[in-house]
């Protein structure tokens, strides 16, 4: 699944986030990369564990975890802690695969899905495209500020070099309660059908209850744990 969700952050919330990035403590992003990824990572990352960064982290997490389309597509059991990255001229994040497990202790999770929430207006920087090498071919994304791209963590991906301006993005990972990717896709398709029927049929139409039953039983069958 390679999915772009539009306007996950609205204009007001986006402006709020961008205003707060100037108060953050930025560090070498290579410190958080593992294995081969460390050698190809050239960016900065913000400290989101204390001070203004902690409040910004909580705001972004609340917004993302409540987004209905992201929830329907990812079937999240848990989100990782979020990272905020800044990539300037000559910065990049070369081809790599995300670690299969992230975090420590009770926060440790399996990375089924990765996401990038774009924060910079694409007209303000050159390069910086997110490229994901999927089974069905390569996907390249440089969407509007406030849009989010969701993709499998196991796919090789990269952030192309930035040649002008500055690219700001929030990145994170999701452990899905539905481990099988095809099952997640099927549930997402059914959720889209449910939304479509809701706009076409009266609330008491029997089709609603029948579809609710199918989705509920598939979630029970496919959910981990």
UniProtKB/TrEMBL annotation:
GO molecular function terms attached to this record? 2-oxoglutarate-dependent dioxygenase activity; iron ion binding; L-ascorbic acid binding
Specify which residues bind 2-oxoglutarate according to the UniProt entry for this protein.
167
Q: Which Gene3D superfamilies match?
A: q2cbj1_9rhob like domain (2.60.120.620), Rabenosyn, Rab binding domain (4.10.860.20)
* Chain residues that bind Fe cation: 96, 98, 157
- State its cofactor: L-ascorbate; Fe(2+)
Which parts of the sequence belong to the Fe2OG dioxygenase domain?
Answer: 78-176
Keywords, comma-separated and alphabetical: Dioxygenase, Iron, Metal-binding, Oxidoreductase, Vitamin C
SMART domains, sorted: P4Hc (SM00702)
Q: Name one GO biological process term.
A: intracellular iron ion homeostasis
Cofactor binding notes: Binds 1 Fe(2+) ion per subunit.
Which HAMAP family did the record assign? Answer: Hydroxyl_YbiX (MF_00657)
Record's protein name? 2OG-Fe(II) oxygenase
